[in-house]
Specification:
The protein is extended, with a radius of gyration of 21 Å. By secondary structure, the chain is of the alpha+beta class. Helices cover about 25% and strands about 20% of the residues.
């Protein structure tokens, strides 16, 4: 299958067909170059330290019945100091 580079800001990208993405089961890829070839490897969700966080959070919200901000009112010294940019 042939594809062309497209301009994305200062970078270039390629469009990966949905059928290929679906077969990999991943929406994140590691990119490398070897011997003049560009290699994309799907990120294994089992090795992703944040894999399943969204699902776990949703279950916790369901169990607790709370959807409000659990950190509301929690602050530290950094929050109290003036911010300088």
């Amino acid at each position: 299958m042939e594809t062309r580079l497209i301009k994305i800001g200062n970078s270039r990208g390629v469009i990966i067909p949905k059928s290929i993405i679906d077969r990999t089961g991943s929406s994140a890829f590691n990119i490398s170059e070897k011997g003049g070839n560009i290699i994309l490897k799907p990120v294994d969700s089992k090795n992703n330290p944040r894999a399943g966080w969204e699902e776990q959070f949703s279950r916790s919200v369901e169990k607790s019945g709370r959807e409000d901000d659990l950190f509301d009112g929690v602050c530290n010294d950094f929050d109290e100091e003036g911010w300088t940019w």
